[in-house]
Design brief:
Layout (H helix, E strand, L loop, with lengths): L23 E6 L8 E7 L15 E7 L5 H7 L6 E7 L25 E7 L3 H7 L5 E2 L11 H11 L3 H29 L24 H21 L3 H32 L6
Parallel strand pairs: 1-6
Antiparallel strand pairs: 1-2, 2-3, 3-5, 4-5
């Protein structure tokens, strides 16, 4: 009987990790104490021919499987040996279309639920992309010189960051409202210029403007409108506080109409009885 020997596993764990087509697998560790590696999958960011992209070509690295504990600063530090990094931006899923970017605000655009994300890393030089795909790990996310918080310390930091500063919130709201008012004013001015002017095909755009001017967007005007609505609502609630009161009011109104109808019939009969033939 021939004994079969078990095959030994390869010493290099990177040989056992299959990479998707066109991607390069780069192992990372949270710290030196961690035994197992987590893999980032990288490739050069490309788009189809004729498609616009907000990321510069040949200088953008597309990274998959980014863990939650890896921040933008961490990823920038890990890829810094490959070349100077211009920007790092995380997304929940790959961007398929070129959408206009609005200015970020931590109040109006809250952070998404933490989880595995994708990253777009823009280098200042095209050689950084090739150097990043040729990296051999494992790379350490948390070091003594650059520690990364985790566990309770990370929860405390996230909770502290989630509490907004009232003054910063006020400044952000004022800036947003100024930008919005300026945009509305430009749209109204453009619509006023195009009013009554025929287009290339001879069509005239007709707009309907209200006779009543819009109320000024002030705190006093808003309070007056709210107070008026409150009084109207209170008056309606007092008149019909209960459903049975509403039905009782209708029944009393019908009884009064019947009584008045009977009185009018008696008055007409009396007038007919008193009518006499008077030829002269």
């Amino acid at each position: 009987m021939v004994a079969r020997r078990k095959k030994r596993a390869p010493q290099n764990s990177e040989d056992r990790i299959p990479s998707p087509l066109g991607y390069s697998a780069v192992p990372i560790k949270f710290s030196e104490k961690q035994q197992f590696c987590h893999y980032l999958y990288m490739r050069e960011h490309r788009v189809r021919e004729g498609t616009k992209s907000s990321w510069p070509q040949k200088r953008t690295l597309f990274v998959l499987n980014v863990p939650p504990y890896c921040t933008e600063e961490c990823l920038s530090r890990l890829l810094a040996p490959c070349g100077p990094v211009q920007s790092v931006e995380f997304h929940g899923k790959p961007e398929l279309t070129d959408s206009p970017k609005e200015p970020k605000s931590k109040f109006f655009h809250p952070k998404p639920v933490p989880g595995f994300q994708v990253a777009y890393v823009v280098f200042r030089k095209p050689g950084g992309v090739a150097a990043a795909m040729a990296l051999r790990g494992p790379l350490l996310v948390s070091t003594e010189s650059h520690p990364v918080q985790s566990g309770v310390h990370k929860w405390i930091r996230d909770y502290t960051d989630s509490v907004p500063d009232p003054e910063a919130l006020r400044v952000d709201v004022d800036t947003f409202m100024e930008t919005y008012d300026k945009k509305i004013a430009e749209e109204e001015a453009k619509a006023k210029e195009e009013e009554g002017v025929p287009d290339g095909e001879g069509w005239v755009k007709v707009t309907r403007r209200g006779r009543r001017p819009a109320l000024p967007r002030t705190e006093a005007a808003s309070l007056r409108v709210l107070e008026r609505e409150k009084r109207k609502r209170a008056r309606k609630e007092l008149l019909n506080f209960y459903a049975w009161q509403h039905r009782q009011t209708k029944m009393e109104h019908l009884a009064q109409l019947r009584k008045k109808f009977e009185e009018d019939k008696q008055r007409i009969e009396l007038m007919r009885a008193q009518r006499k033939f008077r030829p002269y």
